[in-house]
Design a protein that fits this description.
single chain, alpha+beta, OB fold (Dihydrolipoamide Acetyltransferase, E2P), de novo design (two linked rop proteins), 2 domains, five-stranded mixed beta barrel, three-stranded antiparallel sheet, 8 strands, elongated
Length: about 250
């Protein structure tokens, strides 16, 4: 008899498997980190666990372990975040957050901060209709910080001057990330316009679960898209990982 383990988790990825009408899932749990498990029989019509084995599903998973492999025996679903599918931008960003988490989470490594961040990001997009681009930008910044690749938005990486009263700034690819206007002028960096910097600062200064307060800001789509690209680049330069889920958009 194998022992049953119970853990809270979010499904990051799910692919059909050639045997047993099964799906192979990639899951992320605050206690177990990233792990893989097979759900048998879920491809059959009316399978009880079918909805629980799709990406975004957040629930309490019961797992049987045998020889280091997990099989899902039951799931108590807390949320499937199906609302994300009603809005293409939310769905695309949501999928990219699952991918970023998959790249940052380590197998067998506890990571409550990243788990909370992902769950909150999905909730604010699904229920508070927060602009998905703002959620994406915030998520990259926070998830990189949790993973030890944080950008310092408080002080210039070059001269150490406070960035609080700067009208614009630059992002650099190496080290801590942000330069004041002066230092940015003579360094290879991505120069942010005054409005890009203001928008970025507002997102940085706001907690992820309060992002809804920015809903009335009417951020320009162009600025948000440009900041999303900059953050995707920051992610790449810090982790050497490309985000496939955004490939056709950027
Ligand atoms: Zn400086």
């Amino acid at each position: 008899m194998s022992e049953i383990i119970k853990t809270t988790a979010i499904v990051l990825n799910s692919v059909p498997c050639s045997v047993d009408a099964a799906r192979d899932l990639e899951l992320f749990s605050p206690e177990m980190g990233k792990f893989f498990a097979r759900a048998r029989g879920v491809e059959k019509p009316k399978a009880k666990l079918a909805a629980a084995t799709q990406p975004f599903c957040f629930g309490e998973f019961s797992l049987a372990e045998r020889g280091g492999r997990y099989t899902i025996t039951d799931v108590y679903v807390h949320d499937t975040f199906f609302q994300l599918a009603y809005n293409l931008d939310s769905f695309v960003v949501g999928s990219s957050l699952l991918e970023i988490t998959s790249k940052l989470a380590q197998t067998g490594e506890e990571n409550l901060s990243l788990f909370k961040l992902l769950l909150t990001a999905l909730k604010v997009m699904a229920y508070e209709k927060v602009n998905p681009s703002a959620v994406f930008i915030k998520f990259i910044i926070e998830s990189l910080a949790i993973s030890g690749y944080g950008l310092n938005f408080k002080k210039c990486n070059g001269c150490g001057k406070s960035l609080d009263d700067q009208n614009s700034a630059s992002l650099i690819y190496e080290s801590g990330g942000v330069l004041c206007h002066g230092c940015g002028q003579h360094t290879d960096s991505v120069k942010l316009s005054a409005s890009e910097w203001q928008t970025l600062k507002q997102i940085v200064d706001c907690d992820i679960d309060s992002l809804a307060v920015l809903n009335d800001q009417n951020f320009s789509r162009e600025i948000l898209v440009s900041l999303m690209k900059d953050m995707t680049k920051q992610f790449y330069f810090r982790t050497s990982e490309k985000l496939k889920s955004l490939d056709k958009y950027f």
